[in-house]
Write a structure and sequence with these properties.
The complex is a heterodimer of chains A (321) and B (233).
Chain A (H helix, E strand, L loop, with lengths): L3 H7 L7 H11 L1 H27 L12 E6 L1 H5 L2 H13 L2 E6 L2 H9 L5 E4 L2 H9 L3 E16 L13 H11 L3 E3 L5 H13 L8 E3 L4 H10 L4 E4 H7 L6 E4 L6 E9 L9 H12 L1 H9 L2 H4 L5 E2 L11
Parallel strand pairs in A: 1-2, 1-3, 5-6
Antiparallel strand pairs in A: 3-9, 4-7, 4-8, 4-9, 4-10
Helix pairs in contact in A: 8-9, 10-11
Chain B lengths: L1 H16 L2 H34 L5 H11 L4 H12 L14 H25 L3 H9 L4 H11 L1 H16 L3 H7 L9 H11 L2 H26 L7
Helix pairs in contact in B: 1-11, 2-5, 2-8, 3-5, 4-5, 4-9, 5-8, 5-9, 8-11, 10-11
The chains are: A alpha/beta (321), B mainly alpha (233).
Chain lengths: 321, 233
Amino acid sequence: MPKAGEKLEQGGQYLITERGLLKLIKQKGIKRLSLLLVNLLIIGGLALSGCATQKEKAPAQSKTPKVKDVILATTTSTVDTGLLDVLIPKFEEKTGYKIKTIPAGSGQALAMGEKGEADVLLVHSPKKEMPLVTSGVAINRKLVMHNDFVIVGPADDPAGIKGLKSSADAFKKIAEKKAVFISRGDNSGTHTKELDIWKQAGITPEGAWYQQSGQGMGQTLLMASEKKGYTLTDRGTFLAQQKNIKLAILVEGDKALLNIYHVMQVNPQKFSKVNADGAKAFVEFMVSPETQKIIADFGKDKYGQALFVPDAGKSEDEVGK
Amino acid sequence: MSFIGTGIAEALRMLVTGNKEVLEITWRTFQVSGTATVISVLIGVPIGTFLALKGFFGRNLVISVVNLGMGLPPVVVGLVTWLCLTRYGPLGFLGLLYTPTAMVVAQAIIASPIVAGFTMAAIQSINPKMRLQILALGANRVQFLLLLLREARLGLLAAVIAGFGGVISEVGASIMVGGNIKGYTRVLTTAIALEVSKGSFELATALSIILLLLAFLITAVLTSIQQHRRQPQ
């Protein structure tokens, strides 16, 4: 297409010259529109540069490790209780690494480890952890701490499980009465534990009374409370959520209800992209006396009792004795 | 109900006292969603304009894809982006997973079809005679497009508003590719999800109110540009 101006020179029959058109454009506010566009670009640029600077300003403390980012795949309970919010800043300050916490069910966390998508795992699903250890995916597996699972339910306890010593017996009663039971159903450590107990009880839970929330522990407790149902929970999340729910602890203290947390690093010989140094540093940090002391005290101020018992250096059989 | 009352009070308190963490999360939310919206405008407006003006083989199919894209489930976008960006995924070498940039990418994917769809509709709704007129007045290609876009500006701003609204309210993709990392990829929506699962409803409500305020503020600015001198008499 020839330019507007040219046309005028050649023919002279056009009413508007290029300059006239520009003037029209100016008057009618194209300029405003382009100004707006420029503004948007500037804002965008600022925002982008903001993102970029954030990325650069990783911790520059005492040591500066080669690869700063360490991906920690962990269970929701360590995040939901607030424990990691206390521990991770301490670790980052001490070592200069930057931890990227990915809270997931233990199932997903372990799956991330299996694919080399995480550097270090903090999980509570000992049975499911063992295959990773035997296949060499997870190395340097160390016992960190434990707390316990409890069976909670409505205070009026329609299934009559209060005070039972065995978790399997309690589950049997719940199934007999077809009382509402909310399961996590998400392959998490808690879900795995729950399935173990059903297995022990010799029951395949099915039917309208057995419902799977598919959500984290906090949400599942809320759901159980709303539906006046029973559920299996770790004690820490229950205490953190207690003020929002109308559920009581009905069964506790069974050895089968121990909730044991291990930390382990993903084998750098299997996955070249794993940040081995960072993962190793995190494992060592978790079992260091200083950290274990913090774990021992964590929650005392807020709940009047500690949420976790530190266990570094013990064997799994010694836990809870 | 008491949560809503205390939530509002808490939100006001945090805003007035300038709670550092909350302000930081709010600013990051604006950065991430704002950047994603700008990118989606840069991608969506040309595509929408092209689809509105050009006839080509398979055009209806492409438009159907764009229209489908306007309703893309964020969690699916999140999953696909996650799979692409994982260490051993096709784009893993970029090292973008669990960074704000990854969130921008996912949100831009969500918003681009929205912007493209709205742009196409806006330009198509201009009277076709207008196009002829602009050309008849001797506009060159750039002037033609600028004038068309100017005529369609109501619809274009609606596109920006819809795109921005889509991403700032989104949680599924952000949490998947961002990881909800404190002080790094935690935005308002993911912070709300976390506070709910922690059982801190007051804080969650307060953050929700701040999110609504932020979204309202931005939408109000865009609307005032859109409705400039358009007050019905």
